[in-house]
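Continued from yesterday's entry.
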Amino acid sequence: MSTQPEFPMESPLLSDQSRGIRTKARPVASWREHHGWSAAASLRRLMSRPVGTLLTVAVMAIALALPLTFYLLLGNVQKMGEALGQNQTVSVFLQPGQSGSSADLMAKKLRDRADVASVKVKTPDQGMDELAKMQGFSGALHTLDANPLPFVLEVLPRTDVNADGVDRLVADMRGLQGVDQVQDSGTWRQRLEALLGVGERAVLILAGLLAVAVLLVVGNTVRVDIASRSEEIGVLMLVGASRAFVRRPYLYAGIWYGLFAGVLAAGFAVLVELALAEPVAKLGQAYAGKLQIDVLPPWLLASVPVAAAFLGWLGARLVSAWQLRKAA
């Protein structure tokens, strides 16, 4: 056992208790003074063993950075799906013989719907021009006596409409008079949304499991510290120190562990963003700037150290209370 106590015996409050001096006249001041001493003493203790502290903090930081990284990747997969066609245009083919005025009237009705972002009318001549540009079609088109293509309405659903909403829109358009066929890639869209739903649930489960891992790491570290200084703790309690008094420095140690790990985890997440910046920029250029990749919001990065400090406190609180009950 080390000859140097983890938290020195010359605590201001302990000195008063060991001399039988009651601090009833200044309970709040004494409580605040001991909190300050506990925070400083626990920090000095962590700094006195930099290698062990760094290893513990690094393990916790990696555990915290993993759900942040998966959250970043999942959000960008969702953005990529939107850019590459999650809300693809639904093509409405009118029956042959429908006039341009009928197509314009139907387009106006569809634009008035709350679930429709835009409607574009494609004439038979425009469709013929597109076919003419395709390799192998230009010669065959010259043999046609008339243009057989119908008017086509390209309907773009709103971005906030989910797959079920798009399905209802497609069903309504199929029931319109004068509509011959509605072409929609709804199956692909539903699969993508289902995959994203599974990913979101997996990130939540992973975050919960890794939060428990952080609790266990801090709890085990505090348990070892308390067990190695059981005799010193026994002396403290013999001279009148309460359990809250004894465990307070260990609670601050848990807070420091969590705070440092949270800051390091946020740094890891930022490094992942920087590592992805260049390939993502090239990918966006390949899609003519349509692909915009998100980064983690600042509020989320700022909340990680706070949440990690709470987890560190909670782990230290649970283990120290259990250990002190055993020592009593």
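--- second protein ---
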Amino acid sequence: MAKDDSSKIDQMVRAAWMYYISGRNQSDIASELGLSRPVVQRLIAAAKEEGIVSVGLHHPVSICLDYAEMLKEKYQLVECNIVPTSNDDDETLDNVSFGCFQLMSKYIKNEPNKIIGIGSGLTLKKAINRIDFESPSSKCVALISAIGVDGQCNYYDDVPLILARKIQANYYQMPAPRYATSHSELKTWISMRVFNEVASIASSASVIFVGAGSLNQDTSPIIKDGFISTEEAIDLSHKGAVGEILGRFIDSHGQVTECDINSFVTSYDIRNNSCPRIGAACGQDKRPVILAALTGHWFNGLVTDEATARWLLVQ
């Protein structure tokens, strides 16, 4: 393909993505791409005519495809989906959630008897809300608890339940609080028969989707939702933690940080399962923990935006 043809297709796909996926109007798209509104209109029409757009988008932006291939090689990934970065953070998040939805469709749609391990977080929730198919013979297993130490449930972290309801799968909940309050309490929880039954199902998962959490005091859900305090987050940072995967705090090398809270966590350690473990995350504050998760082999699949992909490639 000639360079000019590739550039034209890139513009076509970007314009279509911004219009159909991000919900932008043509004037905004023209301004961001540096084009006239009639040109944007023609690009969007051409995308439909050439089959790039139906219900969704079926053609990657070429630079995103290039980044995905380079990341797969650098970090030995089985899956990598890179989506366009927008000037608006919320729009970038929506793009990443759409990219995650694409991989969910690949692994779940028309695939009977799947066991799907699922984490928590806004990116996964947005991806799941796009699902328009069922997989009633499948199992959906929560990899992390939404229960606090006092028994109160965090209804913002109902991601596994939403997925199970969407695809009409059997739902398996993590039967313990996210963190125990002592070693003896942890021993009690993890020795329970039902806890081990759920952990066994998680170990049999054929695909896993998880997010990644930063320690940013203004944006981190694990702080905002009350699972750890701001003071604990600061202490974890001083101990070398750069973020968390399913409630486990890890350092820049992807190793579990030595701290009390990590010794009390009940969530499933996804490194125990060799299936595709796809992390979906974006944003500058999450880049260190995404890199750590790749380095420490927590993820062997990734969905992120092109700016984060470019950053990961130079690390």
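The radius of gyration is 20 Å. The mean pLDDT is 91. Will compare against the first tomorrow.
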